[in-house]
Amino acid sequence: MTVGDIVSATHVPDEGPLAVGPEAARKIEGRSPWQLAFERLRRDRAAAISLVIIILIILMAVIAPVFAHLTGHGVFEQFRDTGLSVDGLPRSPRSAFLFGTDDQGRDVLVRVAYGARVSLIVGVLATALTVSIGTVIGLAAGYLGKLVDTVLARLIDVMLSLPFLLFAISLASVFQPSLTIVIVVLGIFSWSSVARIVRGQVLSIREREYVEAARAMGAGPWRIMFIDILPNVLAPIIVYTTLLIPVSIVGEATLSYLGVGVQPPTADWGQMIAEAATYYSVAPWFLIFPSLALLITTLAFNIFGDGVRDAFDPRSDRQMG
Amino acid sequence: MSINADASKSDGDVLLRVDNLVKHFPVQSTSLFSRNKDVVHAVDGVSLEVRRGETLGLVGETGCGKSTLARCIMRLHDITSGRVEFEGRDITRLSTGQMRPFRRDMQMIFQDPYGSLNPRRRVGSIIGDPFSIHGLADGKERKRRVQEVMELVGLNPEHFNRFPAEFSGGQRQRIGVARALALRPKLIVCDEPVSALDVSIQAQIINLLADLQDELGLTYIFIAHDLSVVRHVSDRVAVMYLGKVGELGEVEGVYQHARHPYTNALLSAVPVPDPATASDRHQIILVGDVPSPIAPPSGCRFHPRCPKARDTCVREEPDLVPRLGDPPTHVAACHFPVADGEDLADSKPEIGADKRIVEEGLVGNV
Amino acid sequence: MALLEVTDLTVSFSTPDGTLNAVRGLSFTVDEGQTLGIVGESGSGKSVSTQTIMGLTRGARVGGQALFEGHDLLTMNTHQLQAIRGAQVGMIFQDPLSSLHPYYRVGWQIIEMIRSHDKSTSKAQAKARAIELLRLVGIPQPDRRVSDFPHQFSGGMRQRAMIAMAMALNPKLLIADEPTTALDVTVQAQVLQVMKRLQQEFGTAIIMITHDLGVIADVADDVVVMYAGKAMEHADRNTIFYKHHNPYTEGLLLSLPAYGGERERLLPIAGQPPSLITLPQGCPFRPRCPYAFDKCMEEPPLVEIAGDPEHVSACWLPPDMKKREKMRQQLLDRDKAATAPAAAR
Question: Three-state SS across chain C?
Answer without folding.
Answer: CCCEEEEEEEEEEEECCEEEEEEEEEEEEECCCCEEEEECCCCCCHHHHHHHHCCCCCCEEEEEEEEECCEEHHHCCHHHHHHHECCCEEEECCCHHHHCCCCCCHHHHHHHHHHHHCCCCCHHHHHHHHHHHHHHCCCCCHHHHCCCCHHHCCHHHHHHHHHHHHHCCCCCEEEEECCCCCCCHHHHHHHHHHHHHHHHHHCCEEEEEECCHHHHHHHCCEEEEEECCEEEEEEEHHHHHHCCCCHHHHHHHHCCCCCCCCCCCCCCCCCCCCCCCCCCCCCCCHHHCCCCCHHHHCCCCEEEECCEEEEEEECCCCCCHHHHHHHHHHHHHHHHHCCCCCCCC
